C-alpha cells in the first residue's frame, strides 16, 4: 500500500519517522478520519473546516497551500494508487515538525495520509442494536481542546479496552461534572418524545463532522444541543451514535434499558440520500 507523506507518495512499509517525532513523544497534533465513496471525499467541507480550526487552536503555522482542494487532490490520488477509490477509509494525521521539549521550536505542520478499503455494508444501518455502557475510569475535561481529535487518544484507547473486556460495543465517556461527553469513537444522541438531543461541545465531546452535519441539515425531527446525564440515557426512547465512517448506528441496550430504532432508521435513510 502507498501512503502520502508531506505531499509525496511512497511505499507504506518504509520507515519515515524518528524517535524525536513530536506526535510520538507528546501526541502533538491532530487527525481526521474520512470516507471516500466513488472517488469523492464525503463531508469534505466540514472535515477541512475542523482541521484548520484545530491547527489554529494548537498554534500551528499553517502553510498557504493547506487547503481543501490540496488535500482532497492528494486523497483522491492516493485512493487511486491503492485501488480503493470506490469505498475507502482515509486518515490524515498532522503533527508539529521539529524537536524540542514541551515548548516547540518549530510550528510547521507535517502530515501523513493513509487509506484502506471499506466493506459495502458500512452504508447499512446496523441490524442488531449496539450494547452500551459507561467507562468509569477516565473523565473528559471541558476546555478549549476537548473538542479536538488529538493524536493523544489515551482516554479513548482505555475506553475501547474497557468495552472489549466487558463485552459491549461502545462506552460512554463522562466529563468532570458526571455528564455525557461522547463515546469511544462517536458522538451520542438521544430521542425523547420525537425530539433529538446531543450534548453541546462545552460538555467535552469531540467536534464530530457527522454530528455537525446533522445539526445543520433540515430533518423532520427537531435536533438540538442539551447537556445529558446518565439518567437521560436510561430514560430515552432511543439512543444512536454518529461518526464519519459509520454514519448512524443505533443502540439496543444501555445497562438495564432497551431501545428501538424508528427515528435512527429514518435519519439514516435521509442521511444516505443527502450525502450521496
TrEMBL record:
It holds the Pfam family Aminotran_4. It catalyses: L-valine + 2-oxoglutarate = 3-methyl-2-oxobutanoate + L-glutamate; L-leucine + 2-oxoglutarate = 4-methyl-2-oxopentanoate + L-glutamate; L-isoleucine + 2-oxoglutarate = (S)-3-methyl-2-oxopentanoate + L-glutamate. GO terms for molecular function: transaminase activity. Keywords: Aminotransferase, Transferase. Pathway: Amino-acid biosynthesis; L-leucine biosynthesis; L-leucine from 3-methyl-2-oxobutanoate: step 4/4; Amino-acid biosynthesis; L-isoleucine biosynthesis; L-isoleucine from 2-oxobutanoate: step 4/4; Amino-acid biosynthesis; L-valine biosynthesis; L-valine from pyruvate: step 4/4. It comes from the Bacteria. Belongs to the class-IV pyridoxal-phosphate-dependent aminotransferase family. This is branched-chain-amino-acid transaminase.
Amino acid at each position: 500500500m502507498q501512503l502520502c507523506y508531506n505531499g509525496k507518495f511512497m511505499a507504506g512499509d518504509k520507515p519515515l519517522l524518528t524517535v524525536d517525532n513530536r506526535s510520538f513523544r507528546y501526541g502533538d497534533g491532530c487527525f481526521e478520519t474520512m470516507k471516500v465513496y466513488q472517488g469523492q471525499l464525503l463531508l469534505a467541507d466540514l472535515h477541512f473546516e475542523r482541521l484548520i480550526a484545530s491547527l489554529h487552536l494548537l498554534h500551528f503555522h499553517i502553510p498557504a497551500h493547506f487547503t481543501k482542494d490540496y488535500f482532497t487532490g492528494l486523497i483522491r490520488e492516493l485512493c487511486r494508487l491503492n485501488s480503493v477509490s470506490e469505498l475507502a477509509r482515509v486518515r490524515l494525521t498532522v503533527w508539529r515538525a521539529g524537536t524540542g521539549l514541551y515548548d516547540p521550536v518549530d510550528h510547521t505542520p507535517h502530515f501523513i495520509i493513509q487509506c484502506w478499503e471499506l466493506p459495502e455494508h458500512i452504508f447499512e444501518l446496523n441490524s442488531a442494536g449496539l450494547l452500551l455502557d459507561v467507562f468509569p475510569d477516565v473523565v473528559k475535561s471541558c476546555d478549549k481542546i476537548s473538542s479536538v481529535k488529538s493524536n493523544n487518544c489515551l482516554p479513548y484507547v482505555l475506553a475501547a479496552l474497557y468495552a472489549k473486556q466487558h463485552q459491549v460495543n461502545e462506552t460512554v465517556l463522562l466529563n468532570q461534572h458526571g455528564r455525557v461527553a461522547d463515546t469511544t469513537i462517536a458522538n451520542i444522541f438521544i430521542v425523547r418524545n420525537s425530539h433529538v438531543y446531543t450534548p453541546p461541545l462545552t460538555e467535552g465531546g469531540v467536534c464530530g463532522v457527522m454530528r455537525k452535519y446533522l445539526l445543520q441539515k433540515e430533518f423532520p425531527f427537531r435536533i438540538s444541543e442539551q447537556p445529558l446525564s446518565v439518567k437521560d440515557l436510561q430514560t430515552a426512547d432511543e439512543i444512536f451514535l454518529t461518526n464519519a465512517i459509520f454514519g448512524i448506528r443505533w443502540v439496543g441496550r444501555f445497562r438495564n434499558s432497551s431501545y428501538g430504532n424508528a427515528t435512527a432508521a429514518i435519519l439514516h435513510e435521509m442521511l444516505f440520500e443527502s450525502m450521496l
